[in-house]
């Protein structure tokens, strides 16, 4: 029979941290690739209308958004509660839409310009008079490809 003895004098070896930087950089790379940056901070209330027949846009990079709705509470002291138009990150008037469309058109290449789409994200409580004014201004700017954003209706 052999004698079993316990080695009390030996310590556990330290944990190797040599691969720790590799793991950190893999996680960093994963989050950099999978994260999308927010392009515009929406400053108006957005409860989109419901629709049953929806289709997705093919190239979202060719879409210019116009947001219409009641300003969020932090902007209501300055702009009031009436529905406002937001172009990019700032509030605008109907007259500013032509300049906005021209700037968006200039930012695209010549081949992409015919495929540009203007998407209207209009709050469900906004009156159609303001939307009609926006559409008239889009006609003046020769932006005739218009899309209305909506959310899918829930079947009950």
Automatic annotation (TrEMBL):
Keywords: Cell membrane, Membrane, Protein transport, Transmembrane, Transmembrane helix, Transport. It is a single-pass membrane protein; Single-pass type II membrane protein. It comes from Draconibacterium aestuarii. It comes from the Bacteria. It holds the Pfam family ExbD. Signal peptide: none annotated. One of its GO terms (cellular component) is plasma membrane. The keyword Transmembrane applies. One of its GO terms (molecular function) is transmembrane transporter activity. It is found in: Cell membrane. This is Biopolymer transporter ExbD. Belongs to the ExbD/TolR family. Its main location: membrane. The chain crosses the membrane at residues 12-33. The lineage of its organism: Bacteria, Pseudomonadati, Bacteroidota, Bacteroidia, Marinilabiliales. GO terms for biological process: protein transport. The keyword Metal-binding does not apply.
